[in-house]
Amino acid sequence: MLLVSRLRSVIAKWIWIILQVLAVALFIYDLPTNDYSNPSTFAQFIVTAMGIYGTILLFTADSEEWFLSKQREKLQRLLR
Q: How many domains, in total, are found in the chain?
């Protein structure tokens, strides 16, 4: 996630999305076998939910503008 947040890498953004899809798929696959009295199951749910929320935030209008601003900065450096 650091590459997405600090470097504004679009490739890292899509790698993050793929990893989150795999995490959600594994969480859903594991649901029938989980021991719901175990605190780690609740922690896994929280981590998965936060990952989904972070992934959703990658597609807001603000984030699209933020990713595009990196391209503008590169263009301005070239034009100097």
A: 1
Non-local (6+) Cβ contacts of 67 within 8 A are 8, 10, 13
6 has pLDDT over 70: no
Asked if 14 and 3 touch (Cβ cutoff 8 Å), the reply is: no
CB atoms within 10 A of CB 51: 19
* Residue 10 CB neighbour total at 10 angstroms: 14
Give the range of the structural domain holding residue 9, as residue numbers without chain letter: 2-79
Q: What is the pLDDT of residues 49-62, one digit of tens each?
A: 999 998 888 888 88
* Closest among 56, 53, 60, 48 to 22, alpha carbons compared: 48
Give a three-class secondary structure readout of 24-53: HHHHHHHHHHCCCCCHHHHHHHHHHHHHHH
